[in-house]
Structures are given as structure tokens and as C-alpha cells.
Amino acid sequence: MSASADAPRVVLGVSGGIAAYKACELLRRFTESGHEVTVVPTAAALHFVGEATWAALSGRPAATETWEDVHEVPHVRIGRQADLVVVAPATADLMAKAAHGLADDLLTNTLLTAGCPVVLAPAMHTEMWEHPATRENVATLRRRGVIVLEPAVGRLTGKDTGKGRLPEPAAIFDACRAVLRRGGPVPTDLAGRHVVISAGGTREPLDPVRFLGNRSSGKQGYALAVTAAARGARVTLLSANAELPDPAGVDVVHVSTALELREAALKAAEDADAVVMAAAVADFRPAEYATGKIKKVEGVEPAPVALVRNPDVLAELSAHRPRSGQLVVGFAAETDDVLANGRAKLARKGCDLLVVNEVGNGKAFGQDVNEAVVLGSDGSETPVPVGPKEALADVVWDLVAKRWEPGRN
Description:
Number of domains: 2
Keywords: Decarboxylase, Flavoprotein, FMN, Ligase, Lyase, Magnesium, Metal-binding, Multifunctional enzyme
Catalytic activity: N-[(R)-4-phosphopantothenoyl]-L-cysteine + H(+) = (R)-4'-phosphopantetheine + CO2; (R)-4'-phosphopantothenate + L-cysteine + CTP = N-[(R)-4-phosphopantothenoyl]-L-cysteine + CMP + diphosphate + H(+)
Shape: globular
Domain Flavoprotein: 9-177
Pfam families: DFP (PF04127), Flavoprotein (PF02441)
Largest sheet: 8 strands, mixed
Binding site for CTP: 283, 293, 311-314, 331, 345, 349
């Protein structure tokens, strides 16, 4: 798909880390989806990927020197004209310069003059990411409204493994798309906040090969995580059997059963400003687990499966909040009397907001779109028309952020 005159203009900054080669895939995703991309590599980045590669993949000359085309003032023009600046990988050195306002090459000049949203995707060794200087630089950048994604955990240079790996290009692209989707400045109203989100559906094992589960894909919870990260939050995602790639900039905790989800949620909620329970949590689990596969016996009807109740995680989180001002958001998937059942559930669970949507007959589960009404404990109702699940996620965060405004809590 070729870029048009009104195509979003993206500056892809590349700093000097071994992960620079992954930026080629990120560039391909931008160009194939119709974005106009200017690549601004640092001198160190060109040791990993050459200028010709960037030009060939973007269809535009790479911008490498402050002193080229001086009459066009590139050190000011590139940042001013962009709709988004993303740096991937962003090294510790690059972030240190950005945090302190240094501008000794074209990329750091661009960061200093950009009037658009800026996304940094860090990549470095674990010790560098965890160093107090880097942590302070990241905090400074986030406080100023820069979106600094959390690095992934995995294989680093050589034999090292840990936190510091560049998030996958597809995940970085999704995060950038969430920023661009708003069509204007991205609110940083979640900056400095820790939000916990559950997604997917729990599975309650019956025997080694069978389980009781549900149809939740986790797409809505993942959309909540992506949009929260794009708005500056530190995000912990509790993923229950969702077969989706980990979102960029998000700490993902994988769980399976309702009991595992409860344990992870209570732990993560200890320092959370908001907890959003979008996962479909099983109400019941088998009373007994068969250690061997339950066999079919010809002519004999199977024994009934006895069930026991699972803990009500949403109600427990609402009733026992470890932090003053912590907000709890629940989801209610209903098949009939949607609003009536939703209001009753809101009162019963004790949460601040309840997202109520109708499921079944191809609605919600597994789809890329959703429609809902967000009920508030203050009696408010916010209808959200059919649209991308990211749009519903942004409405939820809008309502959460409003409740953090002075005088509301």
C-alpha cells in the first residue's frame, strides 16, 4: 500500500544496538500499511544496518546527517512535520541524551524538536536497564509525556537472557498504531500510574486432557493493555490462556485457572492504581481432578461431574483494596436482560465501573469489534457503539482517568 498525501508521517529513529536489524521489520509494517516513513539512524546504528537498506525499505533517502541539505534545516523540520516519532531500538545512551536535552546528532535534534507523540522502544542488557541512572532517565521521559515501552524478557546478546530485549516489531507497531489512532496528541493521563488488567478465559482441568473453559479470546483485555501503555501507564497484564502475542511495553503474567488468576491479581493489585478484570473467570471448577484420562466405557453412562465454586475475584478485589483511591473495573458478559443484569452485578460486586456487553451469536468473543455500556457506581451510563475493541478500551481509560481527577477520590 503506497503512502498518500495525507498518510501519517512517521519518523523511525534507530540507535546503535544489535537489535537495529529488527527495525527493518517495523519499517516494513509501517510502509505496507500506508505510512510515510523517514528513517533517522544514528552513526552507530549504521554499523549494524546500512543506509542503503533503510532507503530501499522506506522508498525514501535515510536522514543521517545534520549538515546535509542545510537549507531545509533538517534538524528542525523532520521532527516538526512528523505525526509520530518512534525510536527502536532506543539504547541507554539515546535515552540518557533525550532525558537531558542533548542534541549532538540528527536523531537527538529530532527528538528535541518533535511536537508529536514520541515512542521509545528500549533494548539493552538487563544490568543497563535496571541501573538507577537509566531508571531515572526513563522516569523523567515518561513524566514529560514520552511513551517509553517496557522491554521484553528473553535472549539478549550472546548467551545472556533477561529483561532488556526489544519487543517484537509487530507489538511495537500495534503500540504505535494505538498512538496514531487518536488522530491528535496522545493523553498521558495514565503516566505514573500502575494498572493491572486480566484478559482471556480461565480453564479448569477435569483430567490431563480436558478442561472446563469459555470462548473468551483475550482481545479486549489486550486492547486495554495496549491503549494503557500508549497513554503512559505501567501495565501488568494477567493473561489467561490467550493465544495472542505479548503486547509491547507490558509486563505479562501467564495464568491458567481461576485460582492462579486470583493469586496473581491479588499480588499485582498491591501497588496498582487501577485493576481492570476483563478476563472471563470460571464460576465453577470440577470438585475432583482425575489424574488419568477419563475413559469411555461402552454401555455405561459417564458419572456426573461435581462442581465447586471458584472465588469471586472481582468482588474480593473490590472489597479489599490495598491502596487508597484504587479503582476496580469489572466486565459482565450477558446474553439477556443485559442492562438489568449488569446493574445488579455492579451492586453485587462493589466495583467502580462495570463494562456490560452482550455475547453470543457472533458478538464480542473472538471478534475485533465490541459494543458495550459502561455503568458507574455513581449511577452513570456511558454507551459505546460498535467499533474496534481499542476504542472501547480508550473509553474505559477516559472514565478511569476522570475518577482520578482532584475532588473525585
